[in-house]
């Protein structure tokens, strides 16, 4: 009897010692942000299935670019799949919608969305939230610098009527004011709109030297196509939210000549040899294109890859303190993520702190233009 009991205890301890790490994922693989979410979804299939000697399961759900669906997804991942961490979502509104659930369950959340509002200002809620996409403020600085170099004095803004568009306008306006750029018009549109003629005409009536379109994915092509159709001749800028091939396909000749800040991964092959991100960026590009074909890689998949790198760096540290499946492990994982230092990702070098849960510096951005239906590094 004692022998049987000992065997049972040892078996239980062994099972506990090799408990799987469950990573929940919510991406916008359908809906208006599908061109962003699909490469993110594809990237999770490339991530390691073992970290620190523990098996890792990725449970990937589609939130259809809908904040309500994103909330349902994270509740399901936590309650039914017992995940140790959640990666998601693709968009800012969806990521914001998931926050409260993550906090209530003390589960780290790694967002792939762009807006700084996901991790700023730091508070009790955002203590549990991290992000891999460059902050809009970070990118806006590079964009404004390019505008001033081009002698732009007046600029108009047309952006999404949601947290992404508002976040970009807020950050851009703050930096533009400091650099003496005058914003002469500000318009909004919905991600699923089929016409922005009214907004474009109002923007053109203000006669700006340049127009900034604060959108992401293929919907951001619509304002630029409309401006070109109506005869606008000034400079047009986009945000890093459009850096994928679907945007180029939908925009066609109408998006030629646009300028935008992007993560260095987008032009990895064009980076100089001494760029500190070149090697890590090319590693991801090589793996993704080996699976999906030459030219298939997307900036947004890189944000998913970087989430994977953060976990590969933090999980071994957390495993020294607690076992997967416990609140103690989730807390240890949160602490380990926050302690990340000099981690080279596909988009930049991560240095996280208690007050900075994004952690990028100027090494995480370059300016590009669209030339011959592709991205060209602006040197």
Walk me through this protein's architecture.
With 379 residues, the chain is an alpha/beta fold. It has two domains: 2-134 and 285-362, Response regulator (Rossmann fold, 3-Layer(aba) Sandwich); 136-262, Rossmann fold (3-Layer(aba) Sandwich). Helix content is 41%, strand content 18%. It has helices at 2-17, 34-44, 67-79, 92-104, 136-149, 163-178, 197-205, 221-229, 245-251, 278-292, 299-319, 327-338; strands at 21-27, 50-51, 54-62, 85-88, 109-111, 129-131, 154-160, 182-189, 210-214, 235-238, 259-262, 343-344, 349-350, 366-371, 374-377. Strands 2-3-1-4-5-6 form a six-stranded mixed beta sheet, sandwiched between helices. A four-stranded parallel beta sheet has the order 8-7-9-10, sandwiched between helices. Strand 9, helix 8 (221-229) and strand 10 (235-238) form a beta-alpha-beta unit. Helix 3 packs parallel to helix 4. The radius of gyration is 22 Å and the shape is globular.
Low-confidence stretches: 5-16
Strand content: 15-25%
Overall pLDDT metric = 94
Broad CATH class of the largest domain: Alpha Beta
How many angstroms separate the termini? Answer: 76 Å
Based on CA inertia axes, which overall geometry fits?
globular
CATH topology name of the largest domain, in short, is: Rossmann fold
Name the CATH superfamily classification of the largest domain.
Response regulator
- Quantity of strands, as a count: 15
Largest sheet strand order: 2-3-1-4-5-6
Query: Architecture of the largest domain, CATH level 2?
Result: 3-Layer(aba) Sandwich
Biggest sheet layout: 6 strands, mixed
- Order of helices and strands, N to C? HEHEEHEHEEHEHEHEHEHEHHHEEEE
Instruction: Report helical residue fraction.
Output: 40-55%
Tally of domains? 2
């Amino acid at each position: 009897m004692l022998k049987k009991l000992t065997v049972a205890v040892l078996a239980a301890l062994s099972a506990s010692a090799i408990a799987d790490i469950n990573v929940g994922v919510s991406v916008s693989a359908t809906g208006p942000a599908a061109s962003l979410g699909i490469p993110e979804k594809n990237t999770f299939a490339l991530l390691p299935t073992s970290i620190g000697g523990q098996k890792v399961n990725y449970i990937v759900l589609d939130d259809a670019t809908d904040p309500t669906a994103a909330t349902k997804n994270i509740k399901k991942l936590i309650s039914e799949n017992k995940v140790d961490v959640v990666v998601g979502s693709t968009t800012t509104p969806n990521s914001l919608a998931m926050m409260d659930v993550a906090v209530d369950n003390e589960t780290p959340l790694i967002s792939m969305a762009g807006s700084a509002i996901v991790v700023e200002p730091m508070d009790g809620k955002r203590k549990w939230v991290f992000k891999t996409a460059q902050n809009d403020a970070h990118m806006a600085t590079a964009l404004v610098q390019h505008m001033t170099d081009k002698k732009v004095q007046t600029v108009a803004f047309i952006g999404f009527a949601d947290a992404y568009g508002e976040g970009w306008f807020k950050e851009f306006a703050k930096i533009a004011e400091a650099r003496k750029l005058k914003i002469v018009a500000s318009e909004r549109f919905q991600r699923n709109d089929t016409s922005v003629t009214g907004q474009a005409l109002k923007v053109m009536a203000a006669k700006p030297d340049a127009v900034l379109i604060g959108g992401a994915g293929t919907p951001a092509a619509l304002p630029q196509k409309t401006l070109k159709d109506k005869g606008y001749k000034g400079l047009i800028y986009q945000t890093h939210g459009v850096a994928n091939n679907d945007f180029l396909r939908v925009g066609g000749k109408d998006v030629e000549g646009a300028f935008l800040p992007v993560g260095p991964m987008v032009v990895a092959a064009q980076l100089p040899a001494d760029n500190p991100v070149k090697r890590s960026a090319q590693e991801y590009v090589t793996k993704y294109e080996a699976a999906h074909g030459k030219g298939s890689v997307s900036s947004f998949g890189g944000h998913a890859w970087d989430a994977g790198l953060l976990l590969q760096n933090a999980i071994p540290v957390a495993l020294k303190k607690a076992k997967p499946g416990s609140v103690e492990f989730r807390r240890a994982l949160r602490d380990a993520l926050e302690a990340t230092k000099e981690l080279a990702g596909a988009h930049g070098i991560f240095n996280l702190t208690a007050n900075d849960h994004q952690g990028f510096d100027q090494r995480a951005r370059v300016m590009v233009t669209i030339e011959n239906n592709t991205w060209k590094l602006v040197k």
